[in-house]
Write a structure and sequence with these properties.
Layout lengths: L1 H16 L5 H56 E2 L2 E2 L2 H7 L2 H4 L3 H4 L4 H9 L6 H30 E2 L3 H7 L2 H4 L2 H12 L4 H8 L11 H24 L4 H9 L4 H29 L3 H6 L7 H10 L3 H28 L13 E2 L7 H32 L1 E2 L2 E2 L2 H12 L7 H29 L7 H8 L7 H13 L2 E3 L2 E3 L3 H27 L2 H9 L4 H12 L1 H17 L2 H6 L8 H9 L3 H26 L6
Parallel strand pairs: 3-4
Antiparallel strand pairs: 1-2, 5-6, 7-8
Helix pairs in contact: 2-17, 2-20, 2-22, 3-17, 7-12, 7-14, 7-18, 10-18, 10-28, 10-29, 12-14, 13-14, 14-17, 16-17, 18-29, 19-29, 20-23, 20-26, 20-28, 22-23, 23-26, 24-25, 26-29, 28-29
């Protein structure tokens, strides 16, 4: 008993000496637990509000940088000399110069009479009709050139296939004015095409300032887009479905028609729809290769702006917006219904492009692939190689005179002249600024458009509207709104030219971030997110720690797209930079090409190197990504 009571009596002291809990320690621990719980509660509350706050900020930014400027343009069309009127807009709709025979509908003529003239041999298309006509031809050429490429990439295995697949999107983000310089160097009177024809004794051709040159240039741009989206769909076809059809007696053609084609043609239509939207709003290529003889709606909007005829320019822009937004809405609805998902499928096996002992049928296919490769190499490589060659070629052969001209212009150029280094510096600074705005905007919009809730399609359409709004319209809206200044509660707020250019570039680039990040988020295994949430992670924490790391390639690719698109943006920049020191490399090229082709090609090579370097990021860190 004595030993037991002594042990019992000594226990508290021993416990205290060994670090046991005293009443004061217990109180401190309780206070610490309460403080920790309060901190966790505050942190959880803050994390729950992060996504709504980011969404609200993105919506506000999009409203200020895009919808308000575009709305300003729309108001310009109906508010003339301080009063609201539809006279200018109605005048444009009734003008045969703009709408051709279709203008009769708005002038009160019978639809049957208008249709009869449109179907007759003497029909008049007008500027809008010609724009749609060249866009339709460009779409057909892009699909015809891009579809065989998708077949080769999806169905054959060969060295360099993955690299070639990654490069299919590169022409699409190359600066359009640089492509125009390449086509001038190829199809001009002294271009490489005529030089090659003369070398073999054939007559030369005059393709510059023709519709054919414009269509080929548009195919250069958009055929890779058709190839990429169609390849992704083809690689998502389940091989077991094809095998089942073959086991039931279907031949190769019928298995393709009944199983493969229904899963591939929606992607072809998507690529065609996007191509039509992009080529309907074309500007730099037509301006450089077609001139005002083949002017599109966009060229005339720019011309009216240069003549300070803002109301008529805005009215014509409304017509363009109506066509583009209608097509974009139809495309998004179609995409929502025919999205091809690759989860849980076994892709079709690829065949060797050069088998050891090909059959007769295989040999014919290979001959067709070789012929296509020859055409594709001519269309895709000739402009770039011609530009490179023209930059180091003069009347007396190889020379670096064009690059020396750029150095000399930088050293002694007058204040009103475009100099190379400010153009390069501005392009880089605007690219970094646009990336800083476009990347978080794109990621937030991608999150919003990949969640299941009512109204998601509307959010997607609203967020993707910049794809269908031309840079000229955005530039005009920023110029007439934020740059000229806005009255807010008696205070005039104006945004400087550099910030306006960054805003225009960010608006042009962020949809591509959405289109590269969104498919990755949509394809993630939702159980991973649910597990993180079950372990106590907030919605924002699950996004940052689970989802975004898994779609890192798409985020990196989206960043590269946004930067490259900013580097090559021309349409909005030419409106905002006119008469200022905010010119970029594309603006410098346009100024040079109007006077001397050599310096323009040299500046184009500089722009090509800088733009292509941004895609090294994709190869190094991004890998193959979905979406665009």
């Amino acid at each position: 008993m004595t030993d037991g009571s002594g042990d019992a009596g000594g226990a508290p002291g021993d416990a205290a000496e060994d670090g046991g809990t005293t009443p004061g320690d217990a109180s401190d621990a309780a206070d610490g637990d309460a403080s920790s719980a309060a901190a966790r509660t505050a942190r959880d509350r803050a994390e729950r509000r992060i996504l709504p706050a980011l969404a609200a900020g993105t919506v506000l930014l999009l409203a200020v940088l895009f919808y308000y400027p575009v709305g300003t343009v729309l108001v310009e069309a109906v508010r003339v000399d301080g009063r609201y009127t539809l006279e200018v807009l109605v005048g444009v709709l009734r003008d045969p110069f703009y709408l051709g025979d279709l203008a009769g509908l708005f002038a009160g003529e019978s639809p049957l009479a208008v249709a009869g003239r449109l179907l007759g041999p003497d029909r008049r298309l007008g500027i809008v009709g010609f724009t749609a006509y060249q866009a339709a031809l460009s779409t057909l050429a892009s699909v015809a050139l891009g579809l065989p490429g998708a077949y080769v990439l999806a169905r054959f295995e060969f060295p360099g296939r993955r690299t070639l697949r990654s490069l299919t999107i590169l022409p699409f983000v190359l600066p359009s004015i640089m492509v125009a310089v390449g086509f001038v160097a190829t199809f001009g009177d002294d271009g490489t095409l005529n030089a090659a024809l003369s070398a073999v004794g054939l007559p030369t051709v005059d393709l510059l300032f023709t519709l054919e040159a414009v269509v080929i240039a548009h195919a250069f741009y958009n055929a890779p887009l058709v190839t990429r989206v169609t390849t992704a769909a083809w690689e998502s076809v389940d091989a077991s479905a094809v095998e089942t059809a073959r086991s039931l007696g279907a031949g190769p053609f019928r298995a393709f028609r009944d199983v493969v084609a229904p899963q591939v043609y929606p992607a072809v239509l998507m690529g065609a729809a996007l191509t039509f939207v992009f080529t309907f709003g074309t500007f730099p290529i037509v301006l450089a290769l077609g001139g005002f003889e083949l002017a599109t709606v966009e060229v005339f909007v720019y011309r009216l702006i240069r003549n300070l005829e803002y109301a008529e320019a805005a009215a014509l822009a409304i017509v363009e917006l109506a066509v583009s937004l209608g097509l974009l809405y139809a495309y998004l609805r179609y995409e929502a219904r025919h999205t091809v998902r690759s989860r849980g499928v076994r892709p079709l096996p690829r065949h060797r492009l050069l088998p050891a002992s090909p059959s007769f049928g295989q040999a014919l296919v290979r001959v067709g692939v070789a012929a296509y490769a020859l055409v594709a190499l001519t269309v895709f490589l000739a402009p770039v190689l011609s530009m490179l060659l023209a930059s180091v070629t003069g009347p007396d052969g190889l020379t670096l005179e064009h690059y020396r001209f750029l150095v000399e212009r930088q050293r002694t150029g007058a204040a009103f002249q475009v100099r190379p280094w400010p153009a390069v510096r501005n392009s880089l600074l605007f690219g970094v600024g646009a990336l800083a705005v476009a990347l978080p905007m794109g990621v937030v919009v991608a999150v919003l458009t990949t969640r299941d809730y009512r109204g998601r399609k509307l959010v997607d359409a609203v967020a993707m509207a910049p794809l269908s709004i031309s840079g000229i319209v955005v530039g005009l809206g920023l110029l007439r709104g934020l740059v000229f200044g806005v009255e807010v509660w008696g205070t005039r707020i104006a945004v400087g030219g550099a910030l306006a250019v960054v805003a225009a570039h960010a608006v042009a680039g962020y949809p591509f971030v959405v289109r590269t990040v969104g498919p990755g988020l949509d394809a993630l295994d939702r159980s991973l997110v649910e597990s993180a949430r079950a372990l106590g992670a907030s919605r924002a924490r699950a996004l940052l720690d689970v989802e975004l790391p898994l779609v890192r390639p798409g985020v990196v690719a989206g960043a590269a797209f946004a930067f490259a698109i900013s580097m090559g943006e021309f349409s909005a920049t030419v409106v905002l930079a006119t008469g200022t020191e905010q010119y970029t490399m594309p603006i410098a090229i346009e100024r040079f090409i109007g006077r001397r082709l050599g310096p323009a090609t040299a500046m184009g090579v500089v722009l090509l190197l800088v733009t292509s370097a941004s895609f090294v990021v994709i190869d190094r860190f991004g890998g193959e990504t979905g979406g665009l």
